Amino acid sequence: MKKIYQQSIFKAAFASALIACAFNVSAQVKVGVIEGLSGPPAIVDFGESYLQGIKLALKDYQTAGGKTKIELTVYDDEANPQRAVTLAQRLIQNDQASVVIGTVSSGNVLAIAPILQKAGIPLVAGPSIATNITTQFIEEKPSQIFRCSMVEKFQIDQMLDWGAKNFKRIGLIHSTTGYGNFAAKEIEAGLKARGVELVAIEAAAPNVTDLTPQMVKLRDAKAELVLNFHESFELPFRPLPRLNYKPVIAGNWGLSSEKVLEIVGKDAIEGTVMGQALDINTPRAQVFNEKMKKEYGKDYRWPVVAALGYDAGLIVFKAVDQVGKADPAAIRNAIENIDGIQAVSATPAKPFSASDHECLDKEHVFLGVWKNGVVTRLN
């Protein structure tokens, strides 16, 4: 009788363990993703590339046997801040997302960040780059706003240090968007601090299709280096052959997109410089690059943005795995304290701290250059 009783207890305990194990395997955490997947081509290029990286990170997490079931809920904000706000509210109220990743437009991020901060839902911003995205929330206790992306100030500082050292005559072309005007102010002030005055400053609306008048003025001002901070990254290149004008062009990391290479051409883009956070020559970056080519084929076109999307995914999925359930507060704490990240980009193993929610700091950002059809580190 005692033996039968013991066997019954053992069977009950075994059954309970199986149920508990099944519960853990099926436990589901929803990760919301908001990206610009339609609208202006430059926005779509950023959004699709970052999302490609996130999806590959999730696939790798699942292949490695991640214990927590993670579901991505992906929305397109259409580069519209009002729609981004609606989507953030939907993720909080309807989808019950425990953490959110996104989006491309800095204006959209700045619109949704206060909503997520108030709701206590962590946000890992990217690939938006406005300098103040995390800093304006860092004093909140706790701050819910993190970022895994380029930071505008870091790429501009690197570029101005290099430009002021190597060129006597520097000009600027920028868009009249909030982003373009912000970048122009930072560039003008930064060069003045380095003892350099711009020889010409030209601006154009974001929807123009021809920058010939602006490039004529930059040529006539004898600008040797043209800083390109217009979101239609390819436009400054188009009139150059007709104008018999061959400046060095440097600018936003958007210039590293293979879509820009495709439009401008290998010869015309040779020597163009931009902010970077991925050294494609490292072994890990080369392995990642081949995996992305295999996964997405010709749709894969932007290594650095995809790499930062992948690293954002690594961080979020590892944090979720540590927590093991839909608990936004615990996931937020896990993100802040995460360590041992084997990033593809220049993101360090321990990306964040209580006082710094940027995965990239100034020392992780460098300049890249188009060389023989590939973006490599500028020496």
Automatic annotation (TrEMBL):
Q: Name one Pfam family in it.
A: Peripla_BP_6
For this UniProt record, the keywords arranged alphabetically read as follows: Signal
Q: Where would I find the Leucine-binding protein domain in this sequence? A: 28-347
**What range does the record give for the signal peptide?**
1-27
Q: Which InterPro entries match?
A: BCAA_transport, Leu-bd, Peripla_BP_I
**Protein family (similarity comment):** Belongs to the leucine-binding protein family.
Q: What is this protein called?
A: Amino acid/amide ABC transporter substrate-binding protein (HAAT family)
The source organism is: Jezberella montanilacus
